[in-house]
Amino acid sequence: MKLFQVFITALKLGCTSFGGPIAHLSYFHDEYVTRKKWISAHAYADLVALCQFLPGPASSQVGMAIGLSRAGILGAIVSWIGFTLPSALILILFGLGLSAIDVTSHKNWLHGLKVVSVAVVAQAILGMGKKLCPDKERITIAIITSVILLFFSSTLLQISVLVVSGIFGVYFLKSTEELPHDPIHKGKKSVGFLFLILFFVFLIVLPLLRTISNLMEIQYFDSFYRAGALVFGGGHVVLPLLQAEVVPTGWVSNDLFMAGYGISNAIPGPLFAFSSFLGAVSSASPNGWVGAILCLVAAFLPSFFLVVGALPFWEQMRTNKLIRKAMLGINASVVGILLAALYNPVWTSAVFSAKDFALVILGFLLLEFWKLPSWLVVIATVLVSFLIYT
């Protein structure tokens, strides 16, 4: 029963989570923290912080971790399948030439979806801020983090700010109450260690197999596994790595690559699902479906290994008093990261007119004060978009 609940919830998020990885985290917060109450706000922020440090798609990793905490390793798998399945199917069908899903021709409702993601992110940041920044010190950490990242945006700087915020938390943050610790996953460290070993084994062995074998399946798996294992900063950062793997080799033309990238930004779900499109259209693939599934699994497999491997150790670290004080600072910094992302890229890519702003505040009203579920607000926004963007 728990597996089914995890799958259905992730599938709903996979069908409605527009707007990129930062927006995904906001949709997740609304569903998993506010509505389902499967995880507390502090534990969720801890997870987001951990996934900021790990290579791979942060939003998908958070989803896997919540599935893992809810229903074990199978829970992590079905959570990933549910969240990734809608976007992967759309991209594969699009890649195989089915014009019926050419959603790029419907610019009005696509723009409406971008606009509503602003309201979703804003509501999530407000909710997280209330819980994670209850005093002037932590509010200051959030604002300073946001200002730094708005002026100087880079993945390395983002990680550095998190580290500095953690150090500040250890030395300067004090709580008048018991420091919060809500368990995420009580997995065995031996199992976690095994999955961390698997992560490195695949990373080392696949290139060796590629040099002694001409099988296209091994070449695919190696290229997409490395791309998923070595990228920090989320979906958009993986694109140059994938382009370097598939375009110079002649597997995918640059025009096809850019067409797939365009539609990847117009649909819900993780941007890493773009790998399924590349597998489907690759000239070296004897079967588009097989190539798509192989590339999709290879791109996400490193994230699965890392989440299952790191979480038992992370859970133990979180029980340490100094680590928990550090997490107070890190969690406040996470709020600042999301606040900076609310402006760029969420706001800057969606709000261009008074109509756009009106739709944002209407969406925020429905989410924050009428407490409507985000998927319902998304559907309502699509309908309204047809009326106001004509």
From TrEMBL:
> InterPro entries, per this entry?
Chr_Tranpt_l_chain, Chromate_transpt
Principal localization reads membrane
UniProt keyword annotations, A-Z: Cell membrane, Membrane, Transmembrane, Transmembrane helix
What GO MF terms are annotated?
A: chromate transmembrane transporter activity
* Subcellular localization: Cell membrane
The UniProt transmembrane annotation reads 73-97, 109-129, 141-173, 193-212, 224-242, 289-314, 326-343, 372-389
PANTHER family this protein is in? Answer: CHROMATE ION TRANSPORTER (EUROFUNG) (PTHR33567)
Which named protein is this? Putative chromate transporter putative membrane protein
- Source organism (scientific name): Leptospira biflexa serovar Patoc (strain Patoc 1 / ATCC 23582 / Paris)
